[in-house]
Amino acid sequence: MPEAVHALRRLGVDRIDLLQLHRIDPEVPPEDQLGELKALRDEGKIGSIGLSEVSVEELERARRIVEIVTVQNRYSLTNGFSEDVLEHCAEQGIGFIPFSPIAKGALAVAGSPVDHVAKAVGATPAQVSLAWLLARSPVMMPIPGTSSVAHLEENLAASTVELTDEQVSELTAAAR
Question: pTM above the 0.85 mark?
Fold first, then answer.
């Protein structure tokens, strides 16, 4: 797979610990795409393989070809489209990496459920969004984007926010 080889060169490394295939190309048989990644893994150029933007069916088809250790799908309080994939990953012990994990829009405005919980626990709405994700599943590994050290520190502090079961339920119900 040329992209993986290019990534090694661009990064100036001999090995990528985790390579996420960012979309299974519908024009190329998965056996070819994933077979090439498996060969690179077997050569030691890739440590582990993950997939992005996949369904449960696509994940299981891929797992018949090569071990998959993570799935990276869009998932947040405002987007639960991948709930079935998250549940499947939890059952199979596969890491789930939600991208765009911070709830924005109506759920985070003043007076919203996120705002209510944020005030109750002394956190920001972004921290509550991340804390909710962490409370949802032990395989959850959110990757919030940031452009500043201050936001990075705020996001990291979300790991210390403790939500009650009632708060998690309130946020989950609001997300539906």
Answer: yes
